[in-house]
Each structure stands twice: as C-alpha cells, then as structure tokens.
Amino acid sequence: MIRGKMAMATLVGCVVLYISLGHIPSSLGVILRTTDKIVWANEFEPIELTCLIESISTNNPRIEWKKIKNGVPSYVYFQNKVAGDLENRAQLREPANIVIFNATRSDTAEYRCEVAAIDDQRDFDEILISLAVRVKPVVPRCSIPEAVTVGTSTELRCLENEGFPAPLYRWFHNNEELLQDPKSSQRFVNLSYSINPDTGGLKFRRVRKEDAGEYYCQAKNDAGHAQCAPQIMEVYDVDILGIFLKAAGGLTVFVCLALSMYSLRRVCVQNKGHSENNYNWPAQSEGVDYGDADEGHFRHKSSFII
C-alpha cells in the first residue's frame, strides 16, 4: 500500500515536471462557452452573440459563424469577413463574438460559432446560440359597433398580426382601462363584460346604458405597444337603427312595386292601341243595302227580281 502511494506521487510529479518543461501542451484542446444560449433582441437595436474561448493553444485559430434558418445553414462569418445578409450589418469582435448593429425580424434563427485549432489535441469546438428578435406591434384593427340595444349581447374585436412575440390585448373605455376580471374591483363588479387578452375580444353579455362611450384597443409585447383610434359606441333603449333600416327597406319595396305596376300599365295601353288601329271591318255585300237603322222597313234594290 505504501509503495503504491509512493509510485502515484512519483507519476504526478513527473507529469507536472513535463508540463513545466513544455513537453506536454498546457491545453488539451479548444473549449468554447457563451454567456447566453438563448438571446432576445429588439428589432432595429444592436445585439452581441458571445463565443468565448476558454482554452486554446493555437495562435491563429479558424473562426466561423453560421446561421441556421429552417434547418438550412449559411455563412455569417467566413474567411475573416462577414458574409451573407449580415455583410453590412455586423462585425467580429475579439475573440470570437459577433455583433449585429441593427437586428431585424429576419435575423431570428440559430447561430453556430465554430473554432478550429490545429495545434491543440482537441482541435475543434462549436457552440449553438438561439436568437429571437422581438417585433413591436403595429396599429391593431379594431371592430366596434356604432350602435347596440340595451340588454343585447355584443362583441368588440381587436387584431394585430405583426408583433413578435404575439401581443396581449387591453381595452379602454373613455380612456380608462377595463380590468380583465371586472369582479376583482368593486367599481366594475356590476359590469357584464369579459376580455380575452390573447384574442383581443371584448364581450358584453347584456349591454347597459352605461356601456356607451369611446372605446379603443391596445396591443402590447416586450418590444412596445400600439393602439387603434378611439371609436364611439352608442347604446339605445330600442333598436332605432334596425327600425330605420326596416322602414327604408319597406319603402324601397313599395317604390319598386309602384314602378313595376306603372310600367306594366303603359305596356298594356300601348298594346291596346295597336290592336284597335290594326282591326279591319268586313266589307258590305254589293247586292244588298241594309238601309239606315231609322227607316224601319226593308227596301228592295232594282236588282232584286221576283
């Protein structure tokens, strides 16, 4: 046992001595690390992807960056220069970091840093970084009815499809935010609405007179927010708009019928006139003279022979 311990100590001492004399490289291979494997950036803002070399012996290692979009790799940094769609928007920062000056939504992808060191026993290492670029929402499309009737149900809609990640929606009534759960506040406890922050829907189960006013919707994510222009929603005791539309529709039908009847009558009159003008009375017989109706008797012509 004692002899074994002494032999192990001798071996360790020899290894240390060889390393100090330069017979064995101090680094057994290139080793990379990064500060963040998942990186978020705001659109049009700078972002740095870190590729830190923890251990290496090679003086001039080969450094490459690749962008992997939908499973297809392309060069970002190759042969000591930036390439691809980042050619004029990025640069390599020592030792191997890549800096994007103004990230865009098209930069969302996976990026792989590769370092090759020919003088190291482990002469290659790589590290994968996922970049997601946040996109500020654009002005959402809002659908707000102009008029509704008391006691009926209705829904206000809000939609935005440019922001990334997908935004959450908030609704405002007369410049005051509506709580997602009205029962959480005594001020809104009697209101019968519900908000879906994921889809942007604002539903009223039973509209009240107090629900009339100005509404607008806001779409918001970590990159920013945008809102649609305010719109007025009127609330009536009766469906005035519906009555008006029905009356207008009835009047339209009446006018159409009247015009149709008038046109039909003109056609009939014109056809009658043509019939009278084209009628030919039968010619009378040359041998008989019926005389006038007021003579009261039959008169023979000279051609009549007994």
From TrEMBL:
The record gives the membrane topology as: Single-pass type I membrane protein
The protein's matches in InterPro entries, at most eight in alphabetical order, are given as: Ig-like_dom (IPR007110), Ig-like_dom_sf (IPR036179), Ig-like_fold (IPR013783), Ig_sub (IPR003599), Ig_sub2 (IPR003598), JAM-C (IPR042974)
Q: Where does the chain cross the membrane?
A: 240-262
What are this entry's molecular-function GO terms? cell-cell adhesion mediator activity; integrin binding; protein heterodimerization activity; protein homodimerization activity
Keywords (alphabetical) are: Cell junction, Cell membrane, Disulfide bond, Immunoglobulin domain, Membrane, Signal, Tight junction, Transmembrane, Transmembrane helix
Q: Name one GO biological process term.
A: cell migration
Organism domain of life: Eukaryota
Q: GO CC annotations?
A: bicellular tight junction; cell-cell contact zone; plasma membrane; protein complex involved in cell adhesion
Cellular localization per UniProt: Cell junction, Tight junction; Cell membrane
All copies of domain Ig-like, residue ranges = 25-130, 137-233
- Among its keywords, does the record have Membrane? yes
Family of this protein: Belongs to the immunoglobulin superfamily.
Designated name of the protein:
(Atlantic silverside) hypothetical protein
